[in-house]
Specification:
The chain folds into 2 domains: 80 residues, no CATH class; 41 residues, no CATH class. 71% of the residues lie in helices and 0% in strands. It has 6 helices and no strands. Helix 1 packs antiparallel against helix 4. The two termini are 50 Å apart.
């Protein structure tokens, strides 16, 4: 349910000048000179000059993003109604390698520890000697 609210709010948020306000807040927050003066000297807070203007997201971009999200959701929902593909090229190419890995790994906890140590050692050796 929260995703529905977020998707519905996106076009409306695109109309608000939020990016410029966030840039202004970031510039205020990261400005070290005013913070130093306030903390050490007790000076009054002076807001930094406003950031450069930003092109806000248009309503068309918001609606396009909403449409893309709805298409992806529809494809995901329809996925369960279609039979799975018979086989991908990647499955045929990587099948022998994964078959070998399945034979080497039998699911015992010691195997998990061994493979967790083996991976970084191989990766570190490749970085050191490669």
């Amino acid at each position: 349910m929260p995703i529905v609210v977020l998707l519905a709010a996106d076009p409306l948020l695109g109309l608000l000048p939020v990016e410029a306000a966030i840039r202004q807040a970031a510039a205020t927050f990261t400005g070290t000179a005013p913070l130093t003066n306030i903390a050490l000297d007790g000076a009054a807070w002076v807001a930094p000059p406003s950031a450069a203007p930003v092109n806000e997201k248009s309503m068309a971009e918001s609606i396009l993003g909403l449409c893309v999200a709805l298409v992806v959701a529809a494809l995901q929902l329809a996925r369960g109604h279609f039979p799975p593909p018979s086989g991908h090229v990647s499955d045929r190419l990587s099948g022998p390698a994964f078959g070998l890995l399945d034979r080497l790994h039998n699911g015992i906890v010691g195997d998990y520890v061994a493979w967790l140590l083996f991976g970084p050692v191989v990766f570190g050796g490749a970085l050191a000697f490669g």
